[in-house]
Amino acid sequence: MTLHPSKEDSKTHITTLGIVLKSSPIGEYDRRVVVLTKELGKISAFARGARRPTSSLLAATGPFVFGEFTFFAGRDSYTLTECRIEHAFSDLSRDVTKACYGSYFLEFMDYLTREGMDETLPLLLTYASLRALERDRISERLIQSVFELRLIMLEGEWRDIPEANLLPGTLRALSHIQESDLSRLYSFTVNDTVLKELVALSEKLRSRVFPHDFSSLRILKALQ
Q1: CA–CA distance from 109 to each of 82, 126, 163 (Å)?
Q2: Are 51 and 25 in contact (CB under 8 A)?
Q3: Measured between alpha carbons, how far is 109 from 125 in angstroms, rounded to an integer?
Q4: pLDDT (tens digit, 0 to 9) for every residue of the chain, 224 residues total?
Q5: Which of 85, 76, 6, 82 is nearest to 44 (CA)?
Q6: Cα(85)–Cα(88) distance, integer angstroms
Q7: Which of 214, 188, 189, 191 is nearest to 203 (CA)?
Q8: Domain 13-88: which topology?
Q9: Torsions phi, psi of 177, nearest 5?
Q10: Which fold has domain 91-223?
Q11: 111: which of 34, 168, 197, 213 lies 20 to 30 Å off by Cα?
Q12: How far, in Å, CA of 40 to CA of 88, rounded?
């Protein structure tokens, strides 16, 4: 494991922006979390005592939590010591359908990202996608397609697209998805015909570029 210097202590700590992808109980009071971070990429860390009602880490170790995390870098593992929560996305957890979409985004990032890599763009895309779900201004199915297509573009797999066979509205949507800043990525809507074409395209390309069986996607398909 490659350890990284900290802003505060060059030997053992680092503070970085991140989002919790997974959380599971360990022992009587601890948790193990998988966090997608800006500086470290995707890492696993222990959160000691995080399940105690009085723990300062209790609210910080659930899925969807986005904020500034401080880790202690031991010889063989990371330990989460602090978190300044910026957004907890608590509304998503209260809506079954939105929670399923959000869980799919987190599962996708858990599959895609790696430790020690610069994962800034995937991290910010995840945050923007969860915010779009929370705001409820465009359809959840469109958010999913935009998320998948932007990731395919980020991975450099945007090729062999039969543009001549696509509707003008679909081409405009694809141009927006590819070129827009993340802050404006989810600032558009489409009609049902264009949405159907975007959905078909994103499903086809996702299956080719990311041939993985996502358990949360199976649940989503049952809901759609």
Answers
A1: 23, 8, 28
A2: yes
A3: 10
A4: 333 433 444 458 899 999 999 999 999 999 999 999 998 999 999 999 999 999 999 999 999 999 999 999 988 889 999 999 999 999 998 999 999 999 999 999 999 999 999 999 999 999 999 999 999 899 999 999 999 999 999 888 877 666 668 999 999 999 999 999 999 999 999 999 999 999 999 999 999 999 999 999 999 888 87
A5: 76
A6: 7
A7: 214
A8: OB fold (Dihydrolipoamide Acetyltransferase, E2P) (2.40.50)
A9: -60, -40
A10: de novo design (two linked rop proteins) (1.20.1440)
A11: 197
A12: 21
**Which tokens belong to 29?**
């009071």
Would you say the CATH fold of 91-223 matches that of 13-88?
A: no
In this structure, what token pair is assigned to residue 154? 């980020």
Domain coordinates of the chain in residue numbers?
13-88, 91-223
Q: Mind giving me the DSSP string for the chain?
A: ------SS-TTTEEEEEEEEEEEEEETTTEEEEEEEETTTEEEEEEETTTTSTT-TTTTTSSTT-EEEEEEEE-SS-EEEEEEEEEE--HHHHT-HHHHHHHHHHHHHHHHH--BTS--HHHHHHHHHHHHHHHHT-S-HHHHHHHHHHHHHHHTT------GGGS-HHHHHHHHHHHHS-GGGTT-----HHHHHHHHHHHHHHHHHH-----HHHHHHHHH-
Q: Which two tokens stand for residue 17?
A: 């922006």
